[in-house]
Amino acid sequence: MTVPTPAQAAVCFQPGGTAPITYLGINDFITCVNTETRMGDKGYAIELETDGDDHYIDLSNSGILTATDADTPGDVYGIFTETDGADSPIHIVNSGDIEASSDADRAFGIFARTDDTDSPIHIKNSGDI
């Protein structure tokens, strides 16, 4: 049995420590494996977005995620994913616990959105949210 290691992904570089992961407006696919604790006070712990057709997101998370809006008031996401292109599905497998809290707006444990055709969303979660 093999166990994923942090940052073994196509374009998902992970910052050191507990810093959040963010990739926005990527004109390619994103494959991201996170096994570490991530904490963000700007509204997200993991934030991934692709632009263009055939640019999928594949995320596997087993780390503990904590997101707040302490630094940037607004909606809060433990995991935020969005694709903006045809044939750009989102696949999320999460086994880590997620805590998302907002003093100003809404809080989401896992958020996934596709903006075009033939872009299904698959989420498998076994962590506490």
What key phrases describe this protein's structure?
disordered N terminus; single chain; four-stranded parallel sheet; globular; 129 residues
Describe the structure concisely.
Helices cover 0% and strands 48% of the residues. The chain has 129 residues and is mainly beta.
Given helix and strand content, the structural type is mainly beta
> How would you characterize the largest beta sheet?
4 strands, parallel
- As a percent range, the share of strand residues is over 45%
Mean pLDDT: 90
- Gyration radius, to the nearest Å? 14 Å
Uncertain runs are: 1-9
Percent in helix: under 10%
Q: Label the overall shape.
A: globular
**How many distinct beta strands?**
11
Count of domain modules:
1
What is the CA–CA distance across the termini? 27 Å
Protein topology:
Elements: E1 21-26, E2 30-34, E3 38-40, E4 44-51, E5 57-61, E6 65-68, E7 76-84, E8 90-94, E9 98-101, E10 107-114, E11 121-125
Parallel strand pairs: 1-4, 2-5, 3-6, 4-7, 5-8, 6-9, 7-10, 8-11
Overview of this structure, please?
- The structure is a single chain.
- This protein has one domain.
- The protein has 129 residues and is mainly β.
- Mean pLDDT is 90; it is low at 1-9.
- It is built from no helices and eleven strands.
